[in-house]
């Protein structure tokens, strides 16, 4: 295996940074009852009058059980968006470093790059929406710190070939972030099982999609103990609020329900794909490994407007590279999907 010193990839100011520490951290687990008058909280009970657990120990312990990854290799954030932002802050020096993205892909990578004053090298996916591995590797330079691989990819809905991903992880000289927001809908295996083989691999997941908790904002980052220890130092101490922690735990303790919903969504997806193929102005229905479908139509702007007039909001992706005249449909409930098909047939 290659020798990659992750410490050398960090920004200088991050290498020596100290985490914020609260007095509570040190005594929370003490076996005797303690009086907590350290944090200027209101002492009267509201269920949320105390600061939340900054380490989110219970949620991590449950995730650790489910995913078979130690808590020391898990970081939680206020959605994946915060997790991704922390990676920028840890590794990317503003106005010097760059990241590589593979359009068409998730828009937040470039938003976060802009926000952090980091330049972006874009290497388009090929016509089958797969990464051009050789071109990506040729595009990197000594300042390329992060490579974002979104698999299954948003908005194309396909998963990337495992052999290409492996080549990229092995040969990219920075951190490879695999965004697995849609992995629970996919036939492909998560890269979590390979986490310990690659010191530069970071896998992100979220409770926003399959777990049905977009409103609570909980994103998850899995990486080496070293990378997680750095992210823990730089995250805002109370970045995951108590209500979110409680709600997440409740859901993670009811996986059967999650699995049932996912399997319903997948069977609805198959039905919707079949129905879309019968619509006259639909030119291509792309394969989906996620809970949405990318569809090429005759005129995306026109069809988008017509759908809005009928009260259906879809995502128009026509301005994205390789996505001319495409619309993206999320899989709704059976009834919502029926409404969509009925309207499409009328247009
Ligand atoms: C929806 C989505 C996410 C989820 O982001 P959260 O901030 O966790 O809600 C992450 N990555 C991709 C590619 C997505 O489409």
UniProtKB/TrEMBL annotation:
Positions carrying N6-(pyridoxal phosphate)lysine: 209
InterPro entries: Aminotrans_II_pyridoxalP_BS, Aminotransferase_I/II_large, HisP_aminotrans, PyrdxlP-dep_Trfase, PyrdxlP-dep_Trfase_major, PyrdxlP-dep_Trfase_small
Swiss-Prot/TrEMBL cofactor(s): pyridoxal 5'-phosphate
PROSITE patterns documented for this protein: AA_TRANSFER_CLASS_2
Amino-acid biosynthesis in keyword set: yes
Single GO term (MF): histidinol-phosphate transaminase activity
Domain of life the protein comes from: Bacteria
One Pfam family cited in the UniProt record for this chain: Aminotran_1_2
Catalytic activity: L-histidinol phosphate + 2-oxoglutarate = 3-(imidazol-4-yl)-2-oxopropyl phosphate + L-glutamate
Top enzyme category: transferase
The family this protein is said to belong to: Belongs to the class-II pyridoxal-phosphate-dependent aminotransferase family. Histidinol-phosphate aminotransferase subfamily.
Subunit relationships: Homodimer.
Name of the protein: Histidinol-phosphate aminotransferase
Species whose genome carries this gene: Winogradskyella jejuensis
Lineage summary: Bacteria, Pseudomonadati, Bacteroidota, Flavobacteriia, Flavobacteriales
